[in-house]
Design brief:
The complex is a heterodimer of chains A (223) and B (823). Chain A is an alpha/beta fold and 223 residues long. Chain A has one domain: P-loop containing nucleotide triphosphate hydrolases (Rossmann fold), CATH 3.40.50.300. Chain A is built from seven helices and nine strands; from the N terminus they run E-E-E-H-E-E-H-E-H-H-H-E-H-E-H-E. Chain A has a five-stranded parallel β-sheet. Chain A has a four-stranded antiparallel β-sheet with strand order 2-1-4-5. In chain A, helix 3 (103-113) crosses helix 4, helix 3 (103-113) runs parallel beside helix 5 and helix 5 (145-158) runs parallel beside helix 6. The radius of gyration of chain A is 17 Å and the shape is globular. The model of chain A has no long low-confidence stretch (mean pLDDT 88). Chain B is α+β, with helices and mostly antiparallel strands and 823 residues long. Helix content of chain B is 56%, strand content 18%. Chain B has 26 helices and 22 strands. In chain B, helix 2 runs parallel beside helix 9 (292-333) and helix 8 crosses helix 10. Classes of the chains: A alpha/beta (223), B alpha+beta (823). The interface between A and B is large, with 41 and 36 residues.
C-alpha cells in the first residue's frame, strides 16, 4: 500500500524584521490511506503551517511533499487545486463557509468543483447526515457556530475525500457542540474511510487518532 | 514618520487616506483650474466692457484716480464720448456719437473694421491714427460719405480711413445714442474745440490688472468721496454675455461637486471597513476598562490625523497637477491664465477634513458601543451606523460644500435635492434589483456564489452600487451627456439667431416693414410694441434713485424703462413666480417683471408700480416674475404689461432679424427705405456667447476628467474595502479545488453584475440629471439617445468587472493558507 501523504525534510522559514524565523524545521512523515494522525504542540509550533504545506496551500522553503502520489513541487497552483478537488476535504477552526451561499449551496460548491453535475441530492443527503436537513436553505449568518461547523463537515465529506485536513475543528465551539462535532467527525471519517490529519490542542480528540505527532517550539518534530 | 507607518499598517486607514488624497487632489486641482479658467473667461467677458473695471462720469475723471490706478500698476485707457454734428464734403450735416480713444485703446478685445461699408471685417489692434476717423457703416448710407472722404468735426477735418463694424465695448452706448458712431484719436479731441465745461460728454477710463491689484484699487476708490463716478465690472456686462458666463459657472461648479460626492461615497465605505476591522481593538480596550469617550477620542484623533496628512498630500498633488491641466487649457482655449492662488489649496485641505468628518464619522461613532461578547463569539461586533445620523451628516456636508461652491441658496437646494434623489434612487434601485437578482433560480453553485456574493452581502453590495453608480453618473455626464448638453446649448443659438435689432419703428411703418422683410427673404421674430416710461412710484411711494442700496439698482431706477405689452408669454421667457395673465385679465393693469431686475429693485409679487409715460401716470400691479433667456438674442423686456395698460400710449416698435453674411445689402436698403429706424449689430456679442459655450465645453471636459479619475480610484478603494472577505472566500474555493481561472471568472462576474446594475442606474440618473440641468440651467429640453444606455450598462459591466478583478489580483494570487490561518 502506498502512503497517501509523504513529507521529507519539510521546512518553512519567513523573513521578519529581526531576520529569518523558522516556523517548521525539517519535518518528515508518512500517512497511509485510512490513517488518522493528530498533530499537537504548543501555539506557534507550526502545526497549521504543516497542515497547509501538506495540502499544497503554501510553498515550503525546503523539503518535499507527495500528496496522493504526486510531488507537489512539480505541480502548478491550478494542478494542485485540481488534485485537491474531489480528493481532499478541509475543516477549519473558523468554519470558513461562504457567506453568500446557503448551507446546501456551500456543500454543493465542493461537489461542483470536484466535477459532479448532480450536486443537490448528494448535498442534501450529507446535510441530513449531520442533522441539518431542516436548515439547508439557511445562510451561515443564520446558523450557530456548531451548525456552521456541521455544514463544514458536510462540505468536507461531500467529495468522499481520500484525505481530510482538519485544523482545530472544535477550537471555536463550546463543550457540548465540541463533543457533538467530534462524534460526527470521527463517525463520518470511519464511514468514508478517509485518512485524517488533525491539528488540535484537545487531548481527547488527539487520543481518538491512530498516531500523535508532537511539534516543539521552532517547528521540530519532537515525537 | 513612525505615526505614519503605524497608521499605514492599520487596516482601513490607508484606504481612507487614499480616498482623501484622491478627493482632495481632485477638488484642489479642479478648484485651481476652475478659478484660473473662470478668471480667464471673465477676462474675455470683460471685453464687452473694454476692461476689467470701468469708471465713467459726466465730469472729467479726477487726476488722483488715474494716478492711483497707474501707481498700482493697472493698465489704463481713457475715452470721451459725446454727441455732435459732422459736416461732410457734400455739405450735409449729420448727428453722430463721437468716441475719442487714447493710444492704449482697446485694453480688452479688438475693434472690427472694414475698408468698405458692411465689407469683410478685420481686427484692429490700435485705434484710429492721428487725423483719421472710423465711421460706422450706417453713417455711410445716411451721410453719403465714403472711405477716403473728409469730414469736419468741430474745428478739425478728419480723413475717413475705415468703416467701424464693431467695438469691443460698444453695445451699451449704441443703445443710449440713436446716432451712428465715429471714433477719433483722443489726441485730436482738443483740436475739434468741441469739449467745453458745459459739454454733454461721458468721461470714461477702462482698467485692467490682476485680481489683487483691482481689489486694492476698488478698496481705495471706496474710501474716496467721488460723487457721480459710476463703477462697472464684468458683473455689469451685457446680460447675454453675463447669462452665458453664469451658466458656465453653474456647470463648472456642479462638476467639481460631483468629485467630492463620488469621493465621499468611497470614504464612507472605507470608514465602515475601518470600523469593522477596529472592532476587536475597541472590544479589547473596553475589556481593559477604557471609557466609551476615551475609545471614541482615540479613533477620531487617528482618523483626523490621517485625514489631515492625506488632505495635505492631495492638496499639494492637486496644486502640482493643475499646472499640467492649465497648460492644456491654455493651448486648447488660447486662454492666458493668471498664476494660481493658494486659496484653492487651503480650501482643498479643508474640504478633505470636512469630507472625512461628514462621510467617515457616522461609522466610527459605533466603535465605542462595540459588542464585546459578539467579538468574542467571532461575530460582527459593531453595528451598522445609524441611517439618520449618516444621512444627516452627509446631507449637511454635501449641502455645505455645494453652498460654498455655488454661493446661492436656491441653486444649493436644487443641487442638494437632486443629489439626495440620486443617492436615494441609486440605493433603492440597487437594493431592489439585487433582491430580484437573488430570486433568479440558478443551479450552478459557483455562478450562484458570484451572484450571491453581490446580493447576499446586500448592504455592502448596495453601497458599492451607490459608489459605482455615482461614478458612472459622473462619467456619463462627462461623455455622452456633456456632448448632448453642449450641443443642446449651442443649438439654443441656431444659425439664424437674430443678429440685427431694429428700433424706433413707427406703428404706421409696420405693414411696409413686413413687406420689406418678405421681399428681402429675411427671417424676423415679430414686431413688439415699445413705450418709454419713467418709474415714478413704488407702492404709491415716490421712487428716489439715490435711496436704492446698490449702484446697479440706482442706475435701473434712474433710467427710462422700455415697456412692452403682450397677450402671450414670450417663448424664451419662463414664469418663476405668480401666473401669466388669462384672457379675462387683459383689461386689468397687470405687470410681468424680470426676476433679477425685480430682485435688484426690491419689487415683489402684488406690488404696485407707477410709470410716467409722456407726462401721464399709469399704474399696474405685479402679477408674475419671469426668467429671461438673455442669451437667446430675442427681443426681451424687463417689464411687460397687459395690452390694456399701454395700447393707448405713445409707442414705437422693435424687432430683430437675421441677416446672413451674403445679404449685407439688405441692411443698407432697409436704412435707405426707413431712414428713421436704428439698426443695432449684435454679431460680436453673439460671437462672444458662442465662444464662451465652446470654451466651457472644453473646460468641462477637463473638469469632468478629474471626476472620472476620482471615480475610478474611489471605485478601486471601495473594491479593496471588501478584499478581506473576498480573500478568505477565494482561499476556501482554492482549497476546495477551484482553479485560478474559475476564481477570476467568479470575481469578474460578481463585479460585472454590480457594474451592470450600477451602469443601468447610473444611466437613468445621468439622463434624469442632464434633463433637469438642460431645462433648469440651460433652458432647453434634452432627448438622450441610446448611447447613454449602452455605454452605462455595457461600459459599467466591463469597466467595473475589469477594474474590480484587476484590483483584486493580489487576493486571487495570495497563497490560500495565509487567508485561512489569519482568519
Amino acid at each position: 500500500m502506498k502512503p497517501i501523504v509523504t513529507a521529507v525534510d519539510l521546512s518553512r522559514q519567513v523573513t521578519t524584521p529581526d531576520g529569518e524565523l523558522t516556523i517548521l524545521d525539517r519535518v518528515s512523515l508518512q500517512v497511509m490511506p485510512g490513517d488518522a494522525v493528530a498533530i499537537v504542540g504548543p501555539s506557534g509550533s507550526g502545526k497549521s503551517t504543516l497542515l497547509g504545506l501538506l495540502a499544497g496551500l503554501e510553498e515550503p522553503s525546503g523539503g518535499s511533499v507527495q500528496l496522493l502520489g504526486k510531488e507537489l513541487s512539480m505541480l502548478s497552483q491550478d494542478e494542485k487545486a485540481a488534485l485537491r478537488a474531489g480528493n481532499v476535504g478541509f475543516v477549519f477552526q473558523t468554519f470558513h463557509l461562504l457567506e453568500g451561499l446557503t448551507a446546501i449551496e456551500n456543500v454543493e460548491i465542493a461537489l461542483e468543483l470536484a466535477g459532479d453535475k448532480h450536486t443537490r441530492l448528494a448535498a442534501a443527503d450529507l446535510l441530513d447526515q449531520v442533522g441539518l436537513s431542516e436548515r439547508v436553505n439557511h445562510y451561515p449568518s443564520q446558523l450557530s457556530g456548531g451548525e456552521q461547523q456541521r455544514v463544514a463537515l458536510a462540505r468536507a465529506f461531500a467529495v468522499n475525500p481520500k484525505v481530510l485536513f482538519a485544523d482545530e475543528p472544535t477550537g471555536n465551539l463550546d463543550a457540548t457542540s465540541s463533543s457533538l462535532i467530534a462524534g460526527l467527525f470521527f463517525n463520518l471519517r470511519q464511514q468514508y474511510g478517509s485518512a485524517l490529519l488533525l491539528v488540535t490542542h484537545d487531548e481527547v480528540l488527539a487520543n481518538r487518532c491512530d498516531r500523535i505527532l508532537t511539534l516543539g517550539v521552532g517547528g521540530r518534530l519532537v515525537s | 514618520m513612525r505615526l505614519i507607518r503605524r497608521d499605514w499598517r492599520e487596516a482601513g486607514l490607508p484606504v481612507i487616506a487614499l480616498a482623501l488624497v484622491v478627493s482632495v487632489f481632485a477638488v484642489t486641482s479642479v478648484g485651481i483650474f476652475n478659478e484660473r479658467v473662470w478668471e480667464a473667461m471673465q477676462s474675455r467677458a470683460a471685453r464687452s466692457l473694454g476692461g476689467d473695471l470701468v469708471l465713467q462720469s459726466r465730469d472729467p475723471i479726477p487726476l488722483a484716480v488715474v494716478e492711483q490706478a497707474l501707481a498700482l500698476g493697472l493698465g489704463l485707457s481713457q475715452q470721451v464720448e459725446f454727441p455732435s454734428m459732422i459736416l461732410t464734403a457734400k455739405g450735409l450735416t449729420h448727428l453722430v456719437s463721437v468716441k475719442a480713444v487714447d493710444e492704449h485703446y482697446p485694453l480688452r478685445g479688438m475693434a472690427q473694421i472694414a475698408d468698405r461699408p458692411y465689407g469683410l471685417s478685420t481686427a484692429a489692434r490700435l485705434g484710429p491714427a492721428t487725423g483719421t476717423v472710423w465711421a460706422h457703416s450706417r453713417l455711410f448710407a445716411e451721410a453719403q460719405i465714403g472711405v477716403g472722404h473728409n469730414l469736419q468735426l468741430g474745428e478739425k477735418s478728419f480723413l475717413v480711413s475705415n468703416v467701424l463694424i464693431t467695438e469691443p465695448d460698444d453695445f451699451g452706448s449704441f443703445l443710449r445714442l440713436a446716432a451712428p458712431r465715429i471714433m477719433i484719436p483722443l489726441s485730436d479731441l482738443d483740436g475739434t474745440g468741441l469739449i467745453t465745461v458745459s459739454s454733454r460728454a461721458i468721461y470714461r477710463i477702462q482698467l485692467v490688472g490682476t485680481r489683487d491689484t483691482l481689489n486694492s484699487f476698488s478698496t481705495w476708490l471706496q474710501q474716496q468721496d467721488l460723487p457721480g463716478l459710476q463703477r462697472r465690472t464684468v458683473k455689469d456686462a451685457q446680460p447675454s454675455v453675463r447669462t452665458a458666463l453664469e451658466r458656465a459657472s453653474s456647470y463648472l461648479g456642479l462638476a467639481s461637486i460631483s468629485v467630492v460626492i463620488v469621493a465621499g461615497a468611497g470614504i464612507f465605505i472605507a470608514a465602515r471597513f475601518y470600523t469593522r476591522r477596529q472592532s476587536a481593538t475597541a472590544a479589547v480596550m473596553r475589556c481593559l476598562g477604557a471609557s466609551q469617550k476615551h475609545i471614541l477620542k482615540i479613533f477620531v484623533f487617528r482618523l483626523m490625523r490621517v485625514a489631515l496628512m492625506a488632505s495635505c498630500v492631495g492638496g499639494f498633488l492637486g496644486y502640482a497637477g493643475q499646472s499640467l491641466l492649465s497648460i492644456l487649457a491654455e493651448e486648447k482655449l488660447g486662454l492666458s491664465l493668471a498664476p494660481p492662488s493658494l486659496g484653492p489649496l487651503l480650501a482643498g485641505v479643508i474640504v478633505g477634513l470636512v469630507t472625512a468628518v461628514g462621510f467617515g464619522f457616522s461609522p466610527l461613532l459605533k466603535l465605542p458601543n462595540v459588542s464585546v461578547l459578539g467579538i468574542l463569539r467571532g461575530e460582527e461586533g459593531v453595528s451598522p451606523p445609524s441611517a439618520w445620523l449618516t444621512i444627516g451628516l452627509v446631507v449637511l456636508t454635501i449641502g455645505g460644500l455645494i453652498f460654498w461652491q455655488a454661493d446661492e441658496t436656491v441653486l444649493t437646494l436644487w443641487v442638494l435635492g437632486l443629489i439626495v434623489c440620486l443617492v436615494l434612487g441609486l440605493t433603492a434601485g440597487g437594493w431592489l434589483i439585487l433582491s430580484l437578482v437573488m430570486k433568479v433560480p440558478i443551479s450552478r453553485p459557483t455562478t450562484r456564489y458570484a451572484i450571491s456574493a453581490a446580493g447576499n452581502r446586500r448592504g455592502v453590495g448596495v453601497m458599492q452600487i451607490l459608489a459605482f453608480g455615482l461614478g458612472i453618473t459622473a462619467m456619463l455626464m462627462v461623455t455622452v451627456m456633456r456632448t448632448q448638453l453642449m450641443d443642446g446649448w449651442t443649438s439654443s443659438l441656431p444659425r439664424d439667431t437674430p443678429n440685427r435689432f431694429l428700433t424706433d419703428i413707427q406703428p404706421s411703418q409696420r405693414e411696409s416693414l413686413v413687406q420689406f422683410f418678405e421681399k428681402e427673404k429675411l427671417t424676423t421674430r415679430g414686431l413688439y410694441s415699445m413705450t418709454r416710461g419713467r418709474w415714478v412710484r413704488h407702492n404709491r411711494v415716490a421712487v428716489v434713485p439715490d435711496t436704492f442700496p446698490t449702484p446697479q439698482a440706482q442706475r435701473f431706477a434712474a433710467r427710462e424703462f422700455n415697456l412692452s405689452f403682450s397677450k402671450d408669454l414670450p417663448h424664451t421667457n419662463r414664469i418663476v413666480a405668480g401666473t401669466w395673465w388669462t384672457e379675462d385679465q387683459h383689461k386689468e393693469h397687470l405687470l410681468s417683471v424680470e426676476r433679477e431686475f425685480a430682485q435688484t429693485l426690491g419689487i415683489r409679487l402684488g406690488d404696485e408700480m407707477t410709470f410716467s409715460i409722456a407726462g401721464v401716470d399709469v399704474t399696474g400691479r405685479v402679477s408674475n416674475l419671469r426668467e429671461v433667456a438673455w442669451d437667446s438674442f430675442e427681443v426681451n423686456f424687463f417689464v411687460i404689461t397687459t395690452p390694456s395698460m399701454l395700447v393707448d400710449q405713445p409707442r414705437t416698435l422693435i424687432t430683430s432679424f437675421f441677416q446672413p453674411d451674403d445679404k449685407t445689402g439688405s441692411t443698407m436698403r432697409l436704412i435707405k427705405q426707413f431712414s428713421n429706424v436704428t439698426v443695432f449689430d449684435v454679431d460680436s456679442l453673439m460671437q462672444q456667447v458662442r465662444q464662451i459655450i465652446r470654451e466651457v465645453s472644453v473646460a468641462v471636459q477637463y473638469v469632468f476628467l478629474f471626476t472620472l479619475l476620482a471615480g475610478i480610484v474611489v471605485l478601486a478603494a471601495a473594491v479593496q474595502a471588501s478584499a478581506a472577505e473576498r480573500s478568505r472566500d477565494a482561499a476556501v474555493l482554492r482549497a476546495l479545488g477551484a482553479t485560478a481561472r474559475r476564481l477570476w471568472l467568479t470575481q469578474f462576474f460578481e463585479f460585472a453584475l454590480l457594474g451592470l446594475i450600477a451602469g443601468f442606474l447610473g444611466a437613468v440618473s445621468a439622463v434624469a440629471a442632464a434633463s433637469i440641468l438642460a431645462i433648469e440651467v440651460f433652458g432647453f429640453s434634452l432627448s438622450p439617445g441610446w448611447g447613454v444606455w449602452g455605454l452605462g450598462c455595457i461600459g459599467g459591466a466591463l469597466g467595473i468587472g475589469i477594474t474590480g478583478t484587476v484590483t483584486l489580483r493580489p487576493v486571487v494570487s495570495r497563497p490560500p493558507l495565509k487567508s485561512l490561518i489569519s482568519n
